[in-house]
Each structure stands twice: as structure tokens, then as C-alpha cells.
Amino acid sequence: MNYSKIMFMIMIMLTTLMTISSTNWIGMWIGMEMNLMSFIPFINKNKNLKSSRAMMMYFLAQSIGSIIFLFAILMNSFIMTPIMMNEFIKTAMVIGMAIKLGMAPFHSWMPEMMSNINWNEMMVLMTWQKVAPLYTLSNLMNNWSMYILIILSTIVGAIGGLNQTSMRKIMAYSSINHMGWITAMMITQTKWFMYLLIYSITVAMLCYMMNMHNTYFINQVSTMNESMTEKLTYSILMLSIGGMPPFLGFLPKWMAIQSMINTEMMILMTIMIMMSLLTLFYYMRMISSLMLMYSSMNKWMKYKSPNTMMVSLMLTINMSMPIYSIMSFF
């Protein structure tokens, strides 16, 4: 048992909770800095060139975001409440958080860094590491720069992943696209954490499957010797994360679309839906080789393995969206 790894994981969780529970900007900044220092050893546990490169990229990007955020706080040191801030300081704080989240146009570090780490580290980076900056961003609402970030993130996240063969880079661009959706939901209503939760569950399941089969590039998908159930689960996971109904991943996008209709943000919603279709194209490309490949095996489970239960659970979770929809009416 690696006690250092456990300690850093506990620190990552505690520092995020510290940021969420802070009542002022300095407390949030301290929480995010401690979180950064806890996550860096978690990346650099493998002593090789790739993990060192990823560590430096992450450190520099997060440091620049923190410096801009701290500069804005110190500029505004006498007025500590969000209501009384002027637009310049608020915009600087939004930019600082956008750099930390890897939102476009400050996204360049994210795909490069993600292509140098493994699936477990990617899972933490795409889920838990987003919580603290997103919470801080949610306290900076109704700023003009957020609309630009949403449009650019959805466009860059959709177009950037089209020409990629690395699964990790595709997931990085997917994450950029989803950050745009979460931020749009943040403007229209307060239930953005529901989107993040469902997205985190889907991403965690996908990273588990990729790690289980040691898949890092698209051409490796067709070589995976899987049972029919695993193929189906992998395909459904991809469609779910792309927001295809009736799978679970469509539910948060449905909530976001509904809230944008209620606030009459039609142009923004149209751009986001069109870009979401592009992301669905590269998800389909990731599963087409698996689904169209000829196979004489027609059994659901080819062999009994410890992963059988987990794969079946993933399948059930992703198919449960109609149940949630029915429950929402009551």
C-alpha cells in the first residue's frame, strides 16, 4: 500500500472542500494553491520524462491562473464582497479561473498535459480538480467575458478533437467542450453541480474501461479482445458522454438546454448544440471500428472475469436516464 499516494489523495479532497467552504477570496486562493501542491506529486509518481513534462505544464498553467486571480484580489483588497467589485477586477478573476480550468482560449496546456499522464490521473484531473475553480467561478456571475469563454470552449472543444488519434487528447477536448456547457448552466441556473456530477460519473466509468484495456490510441480500440457486453458498454459510454438520448449523459445537457430556453439565450444554445453534434462525430469515430468489425462471437460474456460485474453496472447506470426523466415528472 502506497501511503504517500493515499496522503496526497486525502489532501486533494480536503483542499477542495476548504475552497468550497471559504467565505472570502483569499481562503479560496489558499485552498486552490494547496490543491495544486497536492496534485503535482500525484502526477509525478512515475519517474519518467512524460510525467515530469506533464507536471511542469500543470504547475505553470495553474500558477499563472493563480497569479492573475491573486492580482485581482489584491487590487480589490478593500472590497471583499463579490457584489461591490467592478468589471475589470471581475474579468481578471474569471480569466484566472478559465486558465486553471483549461477553458478556451487558455486551453493549449490541457491536451498536451493529458497526453503525458495515465488514465487514473486523467480521471482525477477531469472530475475532482474541476470542482474548486468552478465553485470560485460560480461566485463571479453575469460577466461579459463568461459568454466569450462559453462560445470559444464549445467551438474549440468540438473542432480540436476532430483530427486527433490519441484517446487522451480527444478526452481533453471533450472536457473543454463540457466546461463550456457547465459554465452556460452556471449563468442560467444554480444546478451546474448536477451537470458536473453526472459528467464525472460518466468520465470515471470511461477512464476505468480505458485503463482496464490499456487503450491510448484509436487504432487500439479494434484490437481489444472484448466480450459483446464490454463492446456495448464502451459504445454506450461514448454516446452517453456525447449527450445522445436516451443515455444518462443527455440528462445534464437537457437541463442546460431547458434553462437556456427559459432565459431566452437562443443564439448561444444553437451554437452549443451544433458544436455538440461535432463532438458526437468523433465519439462515433472512436466506436465505429469496434461496432463494424466482423466477429463470429455472439455470446454476451465470453469469459468470467472480475470485471463482469463492473461492466454490467456501467451498462445499467448509462441506460437509467429514462427512469430519472419519469421520476422528474412526479
From TrEMBL:
Keyword vocabulary terms for this entry: Electron transport, Membrane, Mitochondrion, Mitochondrion inner membrane, NAD, Respiratory chain, Translocase, Transmembrane, Transmembrane helix, Transport, Ubiquinone
Residues spanning the membrane: 7-30, 55-79, 91-110, 144-163, 193-211, 232-254, 266-284, 305-327
GO biological processes: mitochondrial electron transport, NADH to ubiquinone
One cellular component (GO) term of this entry: mitochondrial inner membrane
Stored Pfam families: Proton_antipo_M
InterPro entries named among the record's database cross-references: Complex_I_Subunit_2, NADH_UbQ_OxRdtase_chain2, ND/Mrp_TM
EC code(s) of this entry: 7.1.1.2
Highest taxon listed in the record's lineage: Eukaryota
Record bears the keyword Magnesium: no
Localization per record: Mitochondrion inner membrane
Membrane topology: Multi-pass membrane protein
NADH:quinone oxidoreductase/Mrp antiporter transmembrane domain boundaries: 22-279
Annotated catalysed reactions: a ubiquinone + NADH + 5 H(+)(in) = a ubiquinol + NAD(+) + 4 H(+)(out)
GO molecular function, one term: NADH dehydrogenase (ubiquinone) activity
Function: Core subunit of the mitochondrial membrane respiratory chain NADH dehydrogenase (Complex I) which catalyzes electron transfer from NADH through the respiratory chain, using ubiquinone as an electron acceptor. Essential for the catalytic activity and assembly of complex I. Core subunit of the mitochondrial membrane respiratory chain NADH dehydrogenase (Complex I) that is believed to belong to the minimal assembly required for catalysis. Complex I functions in the transfer of electrons from NADH to the respiratory chain. The immediate electron acceptor for the enzyme is believed to be ubiquinone.
Protein family membership: Belongs to the complex I subunit 2 family.
Protein name (record): NADH-ubiquinone oxidoreductase chain 2
Species assigned in the record: Chauliops fallax
